[in-house]
């Protein structure tokens, strides 16, 4: 490489300045490199300070940047944090849940290793860069405003802490005869059939659980009377009640009657008089978040049925005697007619006596429900005693109309049986039409066989049973128009004029409900029906109809011929329709001398018709549900399922047994 002298010679020898530029540049560069190489500190520092005036400024700026970088790294997510966050998300659950955003910042001021669900807005929050960031609606599905009701999506729900309940009945009751009047709360003496519990203080929110014929008198902190809860009870009913204390109640006193007292020797209260207190807690409902389903799954679901729609009231000043069950004259009273008592839960509100009778008409007992204080307004739930098949109610004037709050609970299984999904709200609901006689139509309402099937399966079941009818021809012109083959003709032609005329013939014995059912039948689009259930045979047998005609397989004057005709026509028109046959069931004569195992009508026993239907099912390759040989009702247990006065139409427990058998078989179609 040329030395510095070479570059200087070029500069001196060049006559034009413009040609000296390269030589000047090369000489300066050579000088700088040579100076730095030989340890010239000034030259090295000059180059190191870069664009800064002095080297110290550049070093200070570098330190500042390092500090800022370190601070920012403190707020960055670590690899462990990210892994934990992803794991928590993949497990379908937040790290924690809080009520408000304020609580979020208070509880986790320095972040948390996972998303936090805030109920206030339903959003998920993630710690990032030193603060909580809103990641939107949890699970990423936005819910429109106004579409969430507290009963559907209340994450914080008041409930009762059963495991924290405690017995609050004092060991020693007051002396006999000391009583607190439930009308005004005043202390009284001389009421010899009562003792009282003394003051029992209410220290936290909750409910009082009590059993027996007792009354609870509530007072405030200044000993002022608020209200009372009064309960009557028949020991056969065994009703447990839960009472929520009225607002501002500081304590209550329980009046305990003699029937629920104590062991005379130890003065210890009978278990039947136990009072328990169950604290009210606020807890988070269990959610199926992975399915984005915010509704709690309930199975069974209880739906109340108002029974006053099926009852009538007597004239005023009439009541049913609570010791004999007979109608008597009593001022300012009315009573209902006697109705069937089913083995289910009932609810009443207000002052009422419920009376019960056995199948033979003998009086059993009464249940006395007394709770007229509007401040309490509690429902009483009870169940008829064992053996009761009929019941009626006595009412006081205030409840002649207001007491139309007498209802029955029916169990509805929602969306699944044994965890097997049958249908969902988004799927098509299965529709079934039931054609048959009075064993199909039943008494109507929530206790007929069709309703049992609907409750057990979740299907939409339409009861199109017409009492007194047959599959085959009927000797009565008007009933004949409701025979199975005539109904099928009307369905397929759309012409129900014959049925409309016959349904109006109520003066010659046609049931009044036929008119309503004809109108309902006209509205059914069988193209939308999934299952057609056919159940005839009882009236065909008792009407001495021939079972079959080998020379004319579709002879509608015969039992099997009418079934063949009807099945073929419905299948040809609606090939996707699933037809199910239901056999007749066991029956007996009212005097008990004959039953369907040995009772011959015409030339046949009922079992001949049952066998014929079973064989017909094989012929058409359709399902037959055997309600005769496999239902479990026979001569030994018949009075459990039938009234001795009616051996053809079963009581509710018989209809329930039959409906459940049909449902358990139909569900797998």
Structure description:
There is one protein chain. The protein is α+β, with helices and mostly antiparallel strands and 669 residues long. 27% of the residues lie in helices and 24% in strands. The protein is built from 19 helices and 37 strands. The strands form 11 sheets. Strands 5, 6, 10, 13 and 17 form a 5-stranded antiparallel beta sheet that branches. Strand 19 and strand 20 (327-329) form a beta hairpin. The N and C termini lie far apart (101 Å).
Outline:
The protein has 669 residues and is of the alpha+beta class.
Oligomer status: single chain
Q: Percent of residues in beta strands?
A: 15-25%
Annotation field: number of helices: 19
Largest sheet: 5 strands, antiparallel
List keywords for this structure.
alpha+beta; 19 helices; 669 residues; five-stranded antiparallel beta sheet; single chain
What topology emerges from the helices and strands here?
Layout: H1 4-13, H2 21-37, H3 41-48, H4 55-74, H5 79-90, E1 96-98, H6 101-107, E2 116-118, E3 123-128, E4 131-137, H7 150-153, E5 156-160, E6 166-167, E7 179-180, E8 187-188, E9 194-201, E10 206-211, E11 215-219, E12 225-230, E13 240-243, E14 251-257, E15 262-263, E16 268-269, E17 275-284, E18 301-306, E19 318-320, E20 327-329, E21 334-335, E22 339-340, E23 346-348, E24 352-357, E25 363-369, E26 380-382, E27 390-395, H8 399-402, E28 407-412, E29 416-417, E30 420-421, E31 431-436, H9 438-441, H10 449-457, E32 460-465, H11 477-480, H12 484-493, H13 497-503, H14 513-522, E33 531-535, H15 538-542, H16 559-573, E34 578-582, E35 600-601, E36 604-605, H17 606-620, E37 623-625, H18 638-641, H19 652-666
Parallel strand pairs: 1-2, 31-32, 31-33, 33-34, 34-37
Antiparallel strand pairs: 2-3, 3-4, 5-17, 6-17, 7-8, 9-14, 10-13, 10-17, 11-12, 11-14, 15-16, 18-28, 19-20, 21-27, 22-27, 23-26, 23-28, 24-25, 24-27, 29-30, 35-36
């Amino acid at each position: 490489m040329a030395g510095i002298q070479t570059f200087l010679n070029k500069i001196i020898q060049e006559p034009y300045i413009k040609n000296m530029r390269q030589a000047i540049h090369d000489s300066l560069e050579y000088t700088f490199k040579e100076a730095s190489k030989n340890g010239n500190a000034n030259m090295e520092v000059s180059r190191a300070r870069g664009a800064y005036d002095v080297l110290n400024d550049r070093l200070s700026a570098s330190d500042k940047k390092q500090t800022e970088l370190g601070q920012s790294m403190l707020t960055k997510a670590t690899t462990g944090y990210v892994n934990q966050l992803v794991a928590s998300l993949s497990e379908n659950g937040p790290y924690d849940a809080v009520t408000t955003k304020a609580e979020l910042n208070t509880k986790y001021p320095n972040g948390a290793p996972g998303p936090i669900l805030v109920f206030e807005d339903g959003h998920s929050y993630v710690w990032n860069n030193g603060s909580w960031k809103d990641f939107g609606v949890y699970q990423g599905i936005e819910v429109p405003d106004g579409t969430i009701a507290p009963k559907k999506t209340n994450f914080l729900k008041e409930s009762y802490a059963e495991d924290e309940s405690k017995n609050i009945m004092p060991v020693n009751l007051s002396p006999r005869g000391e009583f607190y009047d439930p009308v005004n709360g005043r202390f009284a003496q001389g009421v010899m059939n009562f003792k009282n519990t003394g003051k029992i203080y209410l220290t936290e929110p909750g409910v009082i659980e009590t059993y027996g014929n007792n009354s609870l008198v509530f007072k405030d902190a200044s000993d002022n009377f608020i209200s009372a809860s009064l309960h009557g009870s028949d020991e056969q009913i065994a009703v447990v009640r839960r009472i929520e204390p009225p607002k501002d109640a500081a304590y209550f006193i329980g009046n305990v009657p003699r029937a629920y007292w104590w062991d005379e020797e130890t003065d210890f209260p009978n278990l039947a008089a136990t009072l328990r207190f169950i604290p009210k807690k606020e807890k988070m409902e269990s959610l199926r978040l992975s399915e984005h389903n915010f509704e709690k799954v309930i199975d069974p679901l209880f739906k109340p049925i108002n029974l006053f729609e099926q009852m009538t009231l007597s004239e005023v000043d009439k009541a049913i005697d609570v010791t004999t069950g007979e109608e008597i004259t009593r001022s300012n009273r009315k009573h209902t007619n006697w109705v069937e008592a089913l083995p289910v839960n009932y609810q009443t509100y207000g002052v009422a006596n419920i009376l019960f009778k056995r199948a033979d008409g003998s009086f059993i007992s009464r249940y006395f429900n007394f709770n007229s204080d509007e401040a309490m307004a509690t429902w009483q739930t009870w169940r008829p005693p064992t053996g009761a098949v009929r019941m009626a109610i006595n009412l006081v004037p205030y409840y002649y109309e207001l007491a139309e709050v007498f209802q029955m609970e029916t169990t509805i299984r929602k969306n699944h049986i044994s965890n097997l999904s049958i249908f969902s709200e988004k799927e098509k609901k299965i529709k079934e039409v039931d054609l048959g006689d009075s064993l199909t139509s039943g008494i109507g309402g929530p206790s007929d066989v069709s309703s049992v099937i609907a409750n057990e399966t979740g299907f939409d079941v339409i009861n199109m049973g017409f009492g007194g009818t047959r599959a085959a021809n009927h000797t009565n012109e008007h009933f004949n128009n409701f025979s199975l083959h005539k109904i099928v003709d009307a369905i397929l032609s759309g012409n129900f004029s014959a049925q409309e005329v016959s349904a109006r013939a109520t003066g010659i014995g046609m049931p009044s409900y036929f008119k309503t059912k004809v109108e309902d039948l006209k509205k059914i689009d069988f193209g939308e029906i999934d299952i057609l259930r056919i159940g005839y045979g009882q009236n065909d047998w008792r009407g001495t109809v021939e079972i079959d005609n080998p020379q004319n397989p579709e002879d509608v004057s015969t039992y099997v011929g009418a079934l063949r005709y009807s099945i073929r026509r419905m299948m040809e028109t609606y090939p996707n329709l699933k037809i199910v046959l239901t056999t007749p069931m066991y029956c007996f004569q009212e005097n008990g001398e004959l039953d369907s195992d040995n009772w011959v009508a015409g030339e046949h026993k009922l079992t001949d018709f049952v066998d014929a239907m079973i064989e017909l099912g094989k012929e058409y390759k359709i399902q037959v549900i055997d309600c005769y040989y496999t239902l479990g009702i026979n001569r030994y247990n018949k009075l459990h399922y039938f009234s001795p006065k009616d051996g053809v139409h079963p009581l509710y427990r018989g209809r329930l047994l039959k409906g459940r058998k049909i449902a358990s078989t139909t569900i797998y179609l």
